[in-house]
Amino acid sequence: GENVEQHPSTLSVQEGDSAVIKCTYSDSASNYFPWYKQELGKRPQLIIDIRSNVGEKKDQRIAVTLNKTAKHFSLHITETQPEDSAVYFCAASNGDSNYQLIWGAGTKLIIKP
Amino acid sequence: NAGVTQTPKFQVLKTGQSMTLQCAQDMNHEYMSWYRQDPGMGLRLIHYSVGAGITDQGEVPNGYNVSRSTTEDFPLRLLSAAPSQTSVYFCASSRQGSTDTQYFGPGTRLTVL
Protein backbone atom coordinates (compact mmCIF):
# COMPACT_ATOMS: atom_id res chain seq x y z
CA GLY A 1 0.00 0.00 0.00
CA GLU A 2 0.85 3.68 -0.09
CA ASN A 3 3.45 5.18 2.27
CA VAL A 4 3.97 8.92 2.69
CA GLU A 5 7.06 10.46 4.27
CA GLN A 6 7.17 14.15 5.20
CA HIS A 7 10.19 16.34 5.93
CA PRO A 8 11.20 18.19 7.95
CA SER A 9 9.31 17.46 11.14
CA THR A 10 9.96 21.01 12.39
CA LEU A 11 10.80 24.08 10.33
CA SER A 12 11.66 27.47 11.77
CA VAL A 13 11.86 30.45 9.42
CA GLN A 14 12.14 34.20 9.79
CA GLU A 15 8.98 36.17 9.11
CA GLY A 16 8.96 37.23 5.49
CA ASP A 17 11.15 34.34 4.34
CA SER A 18 9.94 31.32 2.35
CA ALA A 19 9.18 27.86 3.73
CA VAL A 20 9.30 24.57 1.83
CA ILE A 21 7.94 21.26 3.06
CA LYS A 22 8.50 18.08 1.08
CA CYS A 23 6.64 14.78 0.90
CA THR A 24 7.50 11.56 -0.89
CA TYR A 25 5.09 8.78 -1.74
CA SER A 26 5.58 5.18 -2.76
CA ASP A 27 2.65 4.20 -5.01
CA SER A 28 2.96 5.44 -8.58
CA ALA A 29 -0.83 4.97 -9.01
CA SER A 30 -1.59 7.74 -6.47
CA ASN A 31 -3.33 10.63 -8.21
CA TYR A 32 -4.42 13.15 -5.57
CA PHE A 33 -2.19 15.13 -3.18
CA PRO A 34 -3.72 17.58 -0.70
CA TRP A 35 -2.11 19.76 1.96
CA TYR A 36 -3.88 20.54 5.23
CA LYS A 37 -3.08 23.11 7.89
CA GLN A 38 -3.83 22.46 11.54
CA GLU A 39 -3.55 25.28 14.04
CA LEU A 40 -3.00 24.41 17.67
CA GLY A 41 -6.09 22.77 19.15
CA LYS A 42 -8.05 23.13 15.91
CA ARG A 43 -9.21 20.82 13.16
CA PRO A 44 -7.23 20.26 9.93
CA GLN A 45 -8.29 22.44 7.00
CA LEU A 46 -7.45 22.08 3.33
CA ILE A 47 -5.16 24.81 2.01
CA ILE A 48 -4.27 23.50 -1.44
CA ASP A 49 -4.34 20.29 -3.44
CA ILE A 50 -2.96 18.98 -6.72
CA ARG A 51 -3.88 16.13 -9.03
CA SER A 52 -1.49 13.95 -10.97
CA ASN A 53 -2.23 15.59 -14.32
CA VAL A 54 -0.86 18.93 -13.08
CA GLY A 55 2.75 19.86 -12.22
CA GLU A 56 2.17 23.01 -10.20
CA LYS A 57 -0.67 24.94 -8.60
CA LYS A 58 -0.63 28.34 -6.91
CA ASP A 59 -2.98 30.19 -4.61
CA GLN A 60 -1.64 33.59 -3.55
CA ARG A 61 1.37 32.93 -1.26
CA ILE A 62 0.97 29.15 -1.37
CA ALA A 63 2.06 26.78 -4.13
CA VAL A 64 2.35 23.05 -4.54
CA THR A 65 4.61 21.26 -7.01
CA LEU A 66 4.41 17.63 -8.05
CA ASN A 67 7.18 15.49 -9.56
CA LYS A 68 5.58 12.21 -10.59
CA THR A 69 8.82 10.69 -11.81
CA ALA A 70 10.54 11.18 -8.48
CA LYS A 71 7.30 10.62 -6.57
CA HIS A 72 7.48 13.70 -4.46
CA PHE A 73 5.45 16.86 -3.96
CA SER A 74 6.23 20.03 -2.06
CA LEU A 75 4.43 22.90 -0.37
CA HIS A 76 5.92 26.35 -0.84
CA ILE A 77 4.87 29.31 1.31
CA THR A 78 6.31 32.69 0.37
CA GLU A 79 6.46 35.88 2.45
CA THR A 80 5.64 33.96 5.62
CA GLN A 81 3.51 35.65 8.27
CA PRO A 82 2.89 34.86 11.96
CA GLU A 83 -0.49 33.34 11.11
CA ASP A 84 1.29 30.71 9.01
CA SER A 85 2.54 29.10 12.24
CA ALA A 86 0.81 25.71 12.40
CA VAL A 87 1.31 22.02 11.66
CA TYR A 88 1.08 21.16 7.99
CA PHE A 89 0.12 17.70 6.75
CA CYS A 90 0.53 16.26 3.30
CA ALA A 91 -1.48 13.29 2.07
CA ALA A 92 -1.71 11.05 -0.96
CA SER A 93 -4.55 8.95 -2.31
CA ASN A 94 -4.04 5.26 -1.63
CA GLY A 95 -3.09 4.17 -5.13
CA ASP A 96 -5.90 5.11 -7.47
CA SER A 97 -8.48 4.64 -4.71
CA ASN A 98 -11.01 7.42 -4.29
CA TYR A 99 -11.73 6.37 -0.74
CA GLN A 100 -8.52 6.43 1.27
CA LEU A 101 -5.91 9.05 2.00
CA ILE A 102 -2.52 8.20 3.47
CA TRP A 103 -1.06 11.04 5.54
CA GLY A 104 2.41 12.28 6.31
CA ALA A 105 3.46 12.71 9.94
CA GLY A 106 3.25 16.51 9.80
CA THR A 107 5.60 19.50 9.85
CA LYS A 108 5.48 22.07 12.62
CA LEU A 109 6.15 25.45 11.02
CA ILE A 110 7.40 28.17 13.35
CA ILE A 111 7.53 31.76 12.11
CA LYS A 112 10.08 33.81 14.01
CA PRO A 113 9.31 37.54 14.35
CA ASN B 1 -24.84 25.11 8.41
CA ALA B 2 -23.15 23.57 11.44
CA GLY B 3 -20.80 21.55 9.18
CA VAL B 4 -19.34 18.50 10.91
CA THR B 5 -20.07 18.12 14.62
CA GLN B 6 -18.63 15.65 17.10
CA THR B 7 -19.55 14.75 20.66
CA PRO B 8 -18.17 14.52 23.24
CA LYS B 9 -15.17 16.87 23.11
CA PHE B 10 -13.37 15.06 25.91
CA GLN B 11 -13.79 11.58 27.37
CA VAL B 12 -11.96 9.48 29.95
CA LEU B 13 -12.56 5.74 29.99
CA LYS B 14 -11.28 2.84 32.01
CA THR B 15 -9.75 -0.15 30.25
CA GLY B 16 -12.47 -2.49 29.07
CA GLN B 17 -15.26 0.09 28.93
CA SER B 18 -17.15 0.71 25.71
CA MET B 19 -18.44 3.95 24.27
CA THR B 20 -19.67 5.62 21.12
CA LEU B 21 -18.23 8.76 19.57
CA GLN B 22 -20.88 10.68 17.69
CA CYS B 23 -20.39 12.42 14.34
CA ALA B 24 -22.95 14.27 12.27
CA GLN B 25 -22.83 16.46 9.16
CA ASP B 26 -25.50 18.66 7.59
CA MET B 27 -23.90 19.14 4.16
CA ASN B 28 -25.50 16.08 2.54
CA HIS B 29 -22.08 14.55 1.99
CA GLU B 30 -21.93 10.95 0.83
CA TYR B 31 -18.44 10.19 2.13
CA MET B 32 -17.63 10.15 5.85
CA SER B 33 -14.57 8.88 7.68
CA TRP B 34 -12.98 8.50 11.08
CA TYR B 35 -9.34 9.22 11.83
CA ARG B 36 -7.19 9.00 14.87
CA GLN B 37 -4.36 11.48 15.40
CA ASP B 38 -1.37 10.53 17.50
CA PRO B 39 1.75 12.67 18.08
CA GLY B 40 4.32 12.24 15.32
CA MET B 41 2.07 9.92 13.29
CA GLY B 42 -0.23 12.17 11.37
CA LEU B 43 -3.79 11.02 10.72
CA ARG B 44 -4.65 7.36 10.32
CA LEU B 45 -7.89 6.21 8.76
CA ILE B 46 -9.97 3.91 10.96
CA HIS B 47 -13.17 3.36 8.94
CA TYR B 48 -14.99 5.11 6.16
CA SER B 49 -18.39 5.12 4.49
CA VAL B 50 -19.34 6.00 0.92
CA GLY B 51 -23.04 6.27 1.68
CA ALA B 52 -25.83 5.13 3.97
CA GLY B 53 -25.56 1.41 4.64
CA ILE B 54 -22.01 1.10 3.25
CA THR B 55 -18.88 1.03 5.42
CA ASP B 56 -15.35 -0.25 4.96
CA GLN B 57 -12.12 -0.56 6.90
CA GLY B 58 -9.21 1.83 6.77
CA GLU B 59 -5.64 1.40 7.97
CA VAL B 60 -6.31 0.79 11.67
CA PRO B 61 -9.81 -0.70 12.13
CA ASN B 62 -9.14 -3.17 14.95
CA GLY B 63 -11.08 -2.42 18.14
CA TYR B 64 -13.57 -0.10 16.40
CA ASN B 65 -16.96 -0.55 14.78
CA VAL B 66 -18.99 1.82 12.65
CA SER B 67 -22.43 1.96 11.09
CA ARG B 68 -24.12 4.39 8.70
CA SER B 69 -27.87 4.19 8.95
CA THR B 70 -28.43 7.74 7.64
CA THR B 71 -26.48 10.11 5.39
CA GLU B 72 -26.01 12.52 8.30
CA ASP B 73 -24.66 10.30 11.09
CA PHE B 74 -21.56 8.13 11.35
CA PRO B 75 -20.92 6.93 14.93
CA LEU B 76 -17.69 5.22 15.98
CA ARG B 77 -17.91 2.53 18.64
CA LEU B 78 -15.06 1.41 20.84
CA LEU B 79 -15.87 -2.13 21.84
CA SER B 80 -13.49 -2.63 24.79
CA ALA B 81 -11.27 0.37 25.35
CA ALA B 82 -7.50 -0.13 25.68
CA PRO B 83 -4.79 2.40 26.64
CA SER B 84 -3.48 2.15 23.05
CA GLN B 85 -6.70 3.83 21.94
CA THR B 86 -5.81 7.02 23.78
CA SER B 87 -5.83 9.56 20.97
CA VAL B 88 -7.61 12.47 19.35
CA TYR B 89 -10.38 11.28 17.04
CA PHE B 90 -11.54 13.28 14.05
CA CYS B 91 -14.57 12.68 11.91
CA ALA B 92 -14.53 14.07 8.37
CA SER B 93 -16.91 14.28 5.45
CA SER B 94 -16.74 15.16 1.76
CA ARG B 95 -19.03 15.27 -1.25
CA GLN B 96 -17.36 12.39 -3.02
CA GLY B 97 -14.64 10.24 -1.55
CA SER B 98 -11.16 11.07 -0.33
CA THR B 99 -10.13 12.96 -3.49
CA ASP B 100 -12.36 15.85 -2.54
CA THR B 101 -12.06 18.49 0.20
CA GLN B 102 -12.34 16.82 3.61
CA TYR B 103 -14.31 18.80 6.20
CA PHE B 104 -13.24 17.83 9.67
CA GLY B 105 -15.14 17.94 12.92
CA PRO B 106 -13.62 19.60 16.01
CA GLY B 107 -12.28 16.32 17.38
CA THR B 108 -12.74 14.19 20.49
CA ARG B 109 -9.85 13.78 22.91
CA LEU B 110 -10.07 10.30 24.42
CA THR B 111 -8.00 9.04 27.32
CA VAL B 112 -8.10 5.38 28.34
CA LEU B 113 -6.72 4.62 31.78
Fold blueprint:
The complex is a heterodimer of chains A (113) and B (113).
Chain A: E1 4-7, E2 10-14, E3 19-25, E4 32-38, E5 45-51, E6 56-59, E7 62-67, E8 72-77, E9 86-93, E10 101-103, E11 107-112
Parallel strand pairs in A: 2-11
Antiparallel strand pairs in A: 1-3, 3-8, 4-5, 4-9, 6-7, 7-8, 9-10, 9-11
Chain B: E1 4-7, E2 10-13, E3 19-25, E4 31-37, E5 43-51, E6 54-57, E7 64-66, E8 76-78, E9 87-94, E10 103-104, E11 108-112
Parallel strand pairs in B: 2-11
Antiparallel strand pairs in B: 1-3, 3-8, 4-5, 4-9, 5-6, 7-8, 9-10, 9-11
Task: Briefly say what this structure is.
Chain A is an all-beta fold. Chain A contains no helices and 11 strands.
Written account of the structure:
The complex is a heterodimer of chains A (113) and B (113). Chain A has 113 residues and is mainly beta. Chain A contains no helices and eleven strands. In chain A, the strands form two sheets. In chain A, strands 2, 4, 5, 9, 10 and 11 form a six-stranded mixed sheet that branches. In chain A, strands 1-3-8-7-6 form a five-stranded antiparallel sheet, with no helix packed on it. Chain A starts with a strand and ends with a strand. In chain B, strand 9 and strand 10 form a beta hairpin. Chain B is globular. With 113 residues, chain B is mostly beta strands. The termini of chain B are far apart. Chain B is built from no helices and eleven strands. The chains are: A mainly beta (113), B mainly beta (113). At the A-B interface, strand 4, strand 5, strand 9 and strand 10 of A face strand 5 of B.
